[in-house]
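Box 3.1 A note on notation
Throughout this textbook, protein chains are presented in two layers. The first layer is the amino acid sequence; the second is a token string describing backbone geometry. Keep the layers aligned when reading.
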Amino acid sequence: MKLFSIFGNPVSHSRSPLMHNSVFKNLNYSACYTRTHLLDGTKLKETFFALGLSGANVTVPHKEAAFKACDEVRGFAKTVGVVNTLINENGKLIGYNTDADGFMYAIEEFENIKKILILGAGGTAKALATRFKQERIEVSVLNRSEGRLSFFNDLACQTYTWDTFELSSYDLVVNTTSAGLADEELPAPKKLILSILKNTNYIADAIYGKLTPFLQLASQNNITYKDGADMLLGQGVLANELFVNATLKKEDIKREMAMSFLL
């Protein structure tokens, strides 16, 4: 039996085990998926092999550490420098990124998205900003401080800190920070968030499984919003394809994984 896991901090909330185990069980694939609470991202590679894993997913805050841990990085992950899916290929750690395409799947129902504001500047933000730019979408990034904004400047995004932010109108605002995951925090000061909400058509939060304070404000202001569940499903299907080396049909993986959200 193959063993898979998700690395993160925190990780106890993750639905990934339920999603992937539903696929493995219902499609008769001999594998099991668990959680690994990892405090130190530099220990990811040694922990991966010590556990005897065939593959893994990586969530906040270790996606950039996962990139550094890989022996080889392929596809979109190589472009963005962020890894959320790991494969053990003959003793070598191979990295991929399925976040960005998962998110594009999640926002398909939103119409005429030409201008996006991203809140946060971590691994998820890097992946999404790069993917949005590939689609010729205008991207702005708002982060607490300047420290992580150079990547986005190089992408030709508009970048701001809380202190330098210049309000504009947006088609979509995306929260990629962990604010609201394990607390009741907003991804930026409330006054700033309220001004942003008055100038956007849609809101998305990468966090799933709860109505974050950010989404609560969107709801109170009658803005169409969605949490990260569809993004989670989209990236999960792509990751599972990699886990099983395409031996299962994508439509079957998607069906069983979508059913797990009803459990």
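The two ends are 24 Å apart (CA to CA). The chain has a mean pLDDT of 97.
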